[in-house]
Amino acid sequence: MLKSLKIENFRCFQSFELQQLGKLNLLVGTNNSGKTSILEAIQLLTSQFNLASLAEVMISRGEYILGDEGGISRELDIRHLFYGHEINEGSRFSIVAGERDNEEGMIVSVQHREQVSVENLQDFALVIESLGQEHETVKLPLSSLEDLQLDYIRRVSRDLKNSAAKTQFVTSFSLTTEKMTELFEQIVLTPEEYLVIEALQTIEPSIECIATVGSGKYRRTTGARSGFVVRLSDGNQRIPIGNMGDGIWRILGLTLAIVNARNGVLLVDEIDTGLHFSAMSDMWKLIWETAKRLNVQVFATTHSSDCWTSLAEIASNESPSEEGITIQRIEKGKPSSVVFTERQVVIAAEQGIEVR
Question: Tens of pLDDT along 192-245?
Fold first, then answer.
């Protein structure tokens, strides 16, 4: 479990630290304060050489350009990963977790071809170096435009053995149908399948079971809320899950993500998306109890007052512990977060103190 996190020269952070991290950590702060960037930093750290996660992050932000092959291929514009959106020889960012005497992390730098041996290198390479007991280095050639070719990243990701922690990232737009179908198939006929049904029942108590349908057809569907049907206790018809509303889809995505992150990390951007305030307490109870049972560390963001005060209800039922619940307030220009422990979260909610 991550106890602390230090970020240098990554995205909007020249230098930033998170301390006193717990099992469940809610990041709050104003727009453009860097909350999503922190989730991305954790994803890169825990995934490390699973370079596909790097591609997903950048494509979701539109940080790519079309290549020369008739506009079909895409290249990742890596400048936006670095503080100030500029890269030169020697540019680097680092993401490090842990205490001073036991640090694990990664350093990403831009190096000249004279310093690294990489085939087909134009001028520079992106070098990813792991820190800690298992030292490993990956060198990725940059194109003439100093970008990373997406096809090359996918090929390298297939070739590398990734032993990093299992990480699931749920964006503010939720998961795609294809991703949710893939995660559901991992838990069919396991105890976690019943956990998914119980989670959906927090929104709609009449749901009895859920299944995927037309996998080949629906996996090619780009639209949201398709590929699943549910059966209700008051009828025999199969109801498309898209008929049930945004809240059901969000809870389904959250549950599938956390049960597939066993012994790993769950990252959720704007966790309250699509959920009515009355469902917040049940959502947090689901996340907290599952995180403890499956050993998952959770990082989530929100702008909602209902969201953090509902978390306070969960915190009030817990004895303070090192692996408990924290709220981390991110403030622009500040070198570290403002930490609210379980007890402080409860007091803030009781006294009407704003933590966002």
Answer: 999 999 999 989 999 999 999 865 554 444 455 788 999 999 888 889 988 888
| CATH class of the domain defined by 169-351 | alpha beta
Please tell me the predicted confidence (pLDDT) of residue 158. Answer: 56
Q: What is the mean pLDDT of the chain?
A: 86
CA atoms of 239 and 291, how far apart (whole Å):
30
Domain ranges of the chain: 49-163, 169-351
Q: What is the mean pLDDT of residues 44-59?
A: 81
Which pLDDT value is given to residue 176?
87
pTM (global) more than 0.85: yes
Q: What is the pLDDT of residue 320?
A: 60
